[in-house]
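2024-03-11 09:14:02 INFO worker-7 job=invfold-0412 stage=load source=structure_tokens
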């Protein structure tokens, strides 16, 4: 066997144990379920199929009944753990499933006679809170995957409010997507599954169609007012959808949140509480799950305990501490995946043909680079980032820009910060002039992202990279604080 051909190791997993792995940059791992049943964050693996992981993925293959897996590759860490919180997560799922069934029965008027009085049967609308690296996103994924696997054709709404996570599009996005088939795991570039792409693809059966707003910064503290507004915008959209489809809404809502809502310095308490309130109100939350944090649990019990159910759930010992450098690399993987698709080469010796097509590890996209005039695209930045420091203002001048005020950014201005910036392209303004209003731009959803790769100030031209050739001329875009360079 050549030296760099990784050996294949067989792992026999006892019931209710999991095989955990972490990958280094540039490596991949192949896992074949050779016997039994197993799942990754609730996504069921098919016996005999090989699943490939890359882009520094970290994860766990869990089994309820026991299984045998064959693992090929060089993970930086791998081990089997017998202590997992999956029982608790499974029980939660059962409780939520009961809520869904009752909600549906109430809607269709088919409740058993003795329970007819239960007119308040509500589907689960769940907010997941916890500190950094507590496994919030993984819990969301497990709960969503169990819901869609329940065989009731549920289509829960998964809401990503963690701009650092990026959800289905680019980092900085806040979004919601109805999920109708299980979300696979293969790379942190698409933790929550993959949105429909421009690729001519047979994968579209489980591609998602998210509704996206752009916050544009990794930290919620950068612009809490904007966060608040976008959360409420998402809430409006969700409410509208649910009013139009009450039966569909019985599947419920799962909301993943940024860690800044779960913990932070005392100085940030007000900011945290304000955003949690925005979430609870916007999505009419009836269950708050607190992942492994006693103090936060007590705080939530005190604030919301009389209005809704607050449950503390255990944190998995497998959750990996992600550092700042890793998160930046993930943002870069996300942008690369957004523009070019994702190809994860299986480890040597694993034929690509044996790899499951469910995991989006072989999608090639061809972005288009085009040169446009400075006047073709109107670019705004929201609020304070463009503000000059107060001491740089002329004597006697007062600051007039508020946190949510759109400020025009001119590419011709040296130091505009636009070179390599990620821009969110917005849906059109209301065509009816009478319906237009000052801050309308904050309420427009995103139709795509682009990156400015070159600025030619003397010629007033810029080069933009976008996933497809659709024209951007005459459109409006927002710039945040993300930059990306194609390497
Ligand atoms: N049981 C597990 N075994 C191995 N890795 C895991 C396990 N659970 C979670 N992870 C990994 O740990 C990392 C952090 O988990 P996750 O993203 O769910 O946490 P989070 O609380 O949402 O993070 P954030 O601080 O970004 O909000 C992820 O890479 C995830 O894949």
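2024-03-11 09:14:09 INFO worker-7 stage=emit residues=487
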């Amino acid at each position: 066997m050549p030296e760099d051909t990784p050996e294949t190791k067989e792992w026999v997993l006892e019931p209710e144990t999991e095989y955990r792995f972490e990958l280094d940059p540039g490596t991949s791992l192949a896992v074949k379920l050779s016997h039994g049943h197993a799942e990754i964050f609730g996504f069921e693996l098919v016996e005999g199929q090989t699943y490939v992981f890359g882009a520094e993925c970290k994860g766990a293959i869990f089994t309820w009944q026991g299984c045998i897996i064959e693992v090929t590759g060089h993970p930086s860490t791998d081990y089997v753990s017998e202590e997992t919180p999956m029982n608790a997560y499974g029980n939660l799922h059962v409780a939520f499933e009961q809520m869904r069934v009752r909600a549906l029965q109430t809607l269709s008027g088919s409740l058993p006679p003795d329970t007819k009085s239960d007119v308040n049967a509500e589907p689960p609308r769940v907010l997941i809170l916890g500190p950094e690296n507590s496994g919030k996103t993984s819990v969301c994924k497990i709960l969503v995957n169990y819901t869609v696997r329940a065989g009731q054709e549920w289509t829960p709404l998964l809401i990503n409010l963690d701009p650092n996570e990026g959800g289905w599009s680019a980092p900085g996005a806040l979004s919601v997507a109805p999920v109708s088939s299980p979300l696979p795991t293969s790379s942190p570039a698409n933790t929550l599954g993959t949105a429909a792409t421009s690729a001519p693809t047979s994968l579209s059966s489980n591609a998602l169609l998210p509704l996206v707003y752009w916050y544009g910064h990794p930290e919620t503290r950068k612009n809490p007012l904007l966060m608040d507004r976008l959360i409420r915008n998402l809430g409006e959209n969700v409410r509208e959808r649910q009013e139009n489809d009450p039966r569909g809404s019985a599947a419920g809502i799962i909301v993943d949140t940024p860690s800044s809502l779960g913990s932070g310095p005392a100085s940030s308490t007000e900011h945290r509480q304000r955003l949690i309130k925005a979430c609870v109100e916007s999505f009419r939350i009836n269950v708050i799950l607190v992942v492994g944090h006693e103090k936060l649990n007590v705080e939530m019990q005190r604030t919301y305990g009389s209005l809704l159910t607050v449950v503390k759930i255990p944190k998995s010992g497998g959750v990996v501490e992600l550092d700042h450098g890793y998160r930046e690399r993930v943002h870069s993987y996300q942008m690369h995946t957004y523009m070019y698709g994702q190809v994860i080469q299986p480890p040597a010796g694993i034929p690509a043909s044996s790899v499951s097509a469910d995991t989006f590890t072989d999608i090639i996209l061809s972005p288009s680079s085009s040169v446009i005039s400075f006047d073709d695209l109107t670019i705004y930045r929201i609020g304070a980032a463009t503000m000059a420091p107060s001491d740089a203002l002329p004597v006697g001048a007062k600051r007039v820009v508020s946190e949510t005020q759109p400020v025009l950014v001119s590419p011709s201005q040296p130091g505009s910060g636009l070179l390599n910036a990620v821009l969110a392209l917005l849906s059109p303004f209301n065509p009816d002039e009478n319906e237009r209003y000052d801050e309308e731009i904050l309420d427009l959803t995103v139709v795509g992202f682009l990156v400015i790769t070159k600025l030619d100030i003397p010629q007033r031209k810029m080069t933009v990279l976008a996933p497809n050739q659709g024209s951007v001329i005459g459109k409006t875009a927002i710039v945040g604080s993300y930059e990306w360079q194609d390497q």
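2024-03-11 09:14:09 INFO worker-7 stage=report msg="Residues 198-205, 386-391 have pLDDT under 50 and may be disordered."
2024-03-11 09:14:10 INFO worker-7 job finished
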